[in-house]
Design goal:
It contains 14 helices and 14 strands. The protein has 381 residues and is α/β, with parallel strands linked by helices. The chain has 2 domains: 141 residues, 2-Layer Sandwich (Enolase-like, domain 1); 220 residues, Enolase-like C-terminal domain (TIM Barrel), CATH 3.20.20.120. Helix 6 packs parallel to helix 7 and helix 10 packs parallel to helix 12. The protein is globular, with a radius of gyration of 20 Å. The termini are far apart.
Length: 381
């Protein structure tokens, strides 16, 4: 039984919200069709309640290139609108947060960060882990890794070989026009026909590319992820009917209603669930449930999260409908030093944290060391 969705855990009384912006260098550049990252600017939400505190991580990027949300905008809307609304509501559960914040249009990543911070405070106070709250059925989850666009085929093969040797159970390659068939062929040849391999286009193609994308069928891919712009469900329907490779939607899926519509229109046969993209973990669970009812497999996407966000993602990925390895990589995939205890890959899996709340501890000394601007408070002088 999911006590969280049923409101069975005691509410908390919110006293203040603190916003931190920190900078964390990546261990290697990460390139996709929409840009190249060498560091991650992270917005952290710290909720203080009379019962204790909770932390959340906003997955928005520094610039509005992946979505309309970005770190500065998320911080502003939380400071000026969302956090004051929570403070006015005062006493609530995580399951109340979406309703309290629905007056603000959009800003799902910002809302998700607040929701998970309240959830962390609420479940810590009640001695319940995220895994228990979500309804996890596994103590550990299979892990995949997302591989960015490389400067050369040789560099790509070297990187993929390293991840294979570390034990990752699935490889995802970022692709774009001009970097697709050749790198996929090279990686498939190196890994062999039995390895789980998929590609992610991050909306880089158009419907005119359907014949070109059909060439990927020969490589036995697990799926092709979000080839067209998120609003164009019809184009994904056409692609799904034209190729053998299963089509997976990511950016298009913003809530449960959209997910059901895309499934019923045959635009997708697999769904990538990113809690930040859909407004929070509770909506992510609803999408999981809807997909499971329709026998549509789901997997947990990633947004280069720190250990804080990764802890919640791993707990989510332990639900029964998450039958494919997600982008829940180990801490060292992205960071030399993580914000929490490091997540370490063991036999291609990560353990689901078992402690109360997220099950991890934010290293506040690193929050101080890595800050890129002073903290902001809402609700405390």
């Amino acid at each position: 039984m999911r006590t969280g969705l049923l409101g069975g855990i005691d509410a908390v009384e919110i006293e203040a919200v603190e916003l931190h912006r920190i900078g964390m260098p990546l261990v290697r550049p990460f390139e996709t069709s929409f840009g190249r990252q060498t560091a991650r600017e992270v917005l952290l939400v710290h909720v203080l309640t009379t019962e204790g505190d909770g932390w959340g991580e906003c997955v928005a990027m520094a610039d509005p290139v992946y979505s309309s949300e970005y770190v500065g905008g998320a911080a502003a809307v939380i400071r000026d609108y969302l956090a004051p609304a929570l403070l006015t509501a005062r006493t609530l559960r995580a399951s109340d947060v979406a309703g309290v914040l629905e007056f603000a249009v959009g800003h799902r990543m910002a809302k998700a960060a607040l929701e998970v911070a309240v959830l962390d405070a609420q479940t810590r106070a009640s001695g319940v882990s995220f895994g228990e709250y979500f309804g996890a059925v596994r103590p550990e989850v299979d892990c995949g890794v997302s591989v960015g666009i490389a400067p050369s085929i040789d560099a790509l093969l070297e990187e993929v070989a390293g991840y294979r040797d570390e034990g990752y159970r699935r490889i995802k390659l970022k692709i774009k026009p001009g970097w697709d068939v050749e790198p996929v062929a090279a990686v498939r040849s190196m890994l062999g026909s039995d390895a789980l391999l998929q590609v992610d286009a991050n909306t880089a193609y158009t419907i005119a590319d359907i014949d070109h994308l059909r060439q990927l069928d020969e490589f036995g891919l697990l799926l092709i992820e979000q080839p067209f712009v998120e609003e164009d469900i019809a184009a994904h329907v056409r692609l799904a009917h034209a190729i053998d490779t299963p089509v997976c939607l990511d950016e298009s899926i913003t809530n449960t209603t959209v997910a059901i519509d895309a499934i019923e229109r045959d635009a997708t046969s697999i769904i990538n669930i990113k809690p930040g993209r859909v407004g929070g973990y509770l909506e992510a669970i609803r999408i999981h449930d809807a997909c499971r009812e329709r026998d549509v497999p789901v997997w947990c996407g990633g947004m280069l999260e720190t250990g804080l966000g990764r802890a919640a993602n791993v707990a989510l990925a332990a639900l029964p409908g998450f039958t494919l390895p997600g982008d829940t990589s180990a801490s060292n995939r992205y960071f030399a030093d993580d914000l929490t205890e490091s997540f370490v890959l063991v036999d291609g899996r990560l353990a689901v944290p078992a402690g109360p709340g997220s099950g991890v501890t934010v290293r506040t000394e690193l929050v101080d060391d890595w800050q890129v601007r002073p903290p902001e408070w809402v609700g405390r002088a």
